[in-house]
Design a protein that fits this description.
The protein is α/β, with parallel strands linked by helices and 280 residues long. The chain is built from ten helices and twelve strands.
């Protein structure tokens, strides 16, 4: 989802873009990554690849660390050989979720799931391997394509299924095209460090986010039950609060991303939500 949005944005900006899916480039394959980067010789490498199945990561540690930890390190080593800037996407799940308010770069990461642990190791391995690495933490990502909370709830709504969403877990929604724009801006700036990239606005629960999406999609009369996260008995623990705020963006002249509610309206205006409603 983010990769498609990034490719579209960069090509619209006039960039020459080399893009790969998992079948054409497995980032856990160090030799394959090195060959590909040496062949294409990019000025910037932006890593949108990850295994984001939180419960799947809990069950399969090896696969989680191959994709989320060794993958970014392989990309960093290849980028270093070429002298290319590297940007790798990380997650709000590197935090434990026991803080009130927003997590910033000053907060110490303390992941509570295998997914979060593997992503944090990917951050650190990439930064240790190559000085020109920028880490972008984000969360609650939504947009066209891909499998995410918003697409799942709209799909179920279109089939008239009973809907539930967690009401006691909070994050900061991020629209994939807005994230893509910021990723390119950071590549141009070439400033190493850790950046928190999310849409502006207060944090929101999954239930509140889902309700807003359903209303914009035309499912105003469809009930959405708010449930507690612990009631779902999922294999992996999740942070109850993973809201993010960036301390660096304004300092380097980057404007805040649009409000997440405005981004959701933009998404709906593309018929991404209303199209699903028309099929119900």
């Amino acid at each position: 989802m983010v990769g498609r949005a990034l490719v579209a944005h960069c090509r619209a900006s006039g960039d020459l873009v080399f893009s790969y899916d998992h079948h054409s480039l497995d980032i856990s394959d160090a030799d394959g990554v090195m060959r590909r980067v040496q062949e294409d010789r990019p000025e910037a490498v932006i890593n949108c690849a990850a295994w984001t199945d939180v419960d799947g990561c809990e069950r399969d540690h090896e696969r989680a660390f191959a994709a989320n930890a060794r993958g970014p390190e392989n990309l960093a080593l290849a980028s270093r050989q070429l002298g290319a800037v590297l940007i790798t996407i990380s997650t709000d799940y590197v935090f434990a979720g026991d803080k009130d308010g927003f997590y910033t770069q000053r907060d110490q990461p303390h992941p509570i799931s295998v997914y979060g642990i593997s992503k944090l190791e990917g951050e650190r391995s990439a930064q240790q391997a190559w000085a020109r690495t920028a880490v972008v933490r984000t969360g609650f990502v939504f947009g066209a394509g891909g499998n995410n909370f918003l697409s799942t709830i709209i799909s179920r709504a279109s089939r008239g299924e009973r809907l539930k969403a967690i009401g006691d877990a909070y994050g900061t929604p991020t629209y994939a095209p807005d994230l893509a724009q910021r990723l390119r801006e950071l590549a141009v700036l070439d400033l190493p460090g850790i950046f928190h990239v999310v849409n502006a606005g207060p944090g929101v629960s999954y239930a509140e986010f889902g309700r807003a999406a359903l209303d914009l999609g035309g499912f105003t009369s469809l009930p959405l039950e708010s449930v507690l996260g612990d009631s779902l008995s999922r294999p992996a623990p999740r942070p109850r609060n993973s809201r993010l705020h960036c301390l660096l963006s304004a300092a380097i002249g980057l404007a805040p991303l649009p409000l997440w509610s405005e981004a959701l309206e933009n998404f709906a205006a593309l018929d991404a939500l209303t199209g699903a409603a028309s099929k119900s």
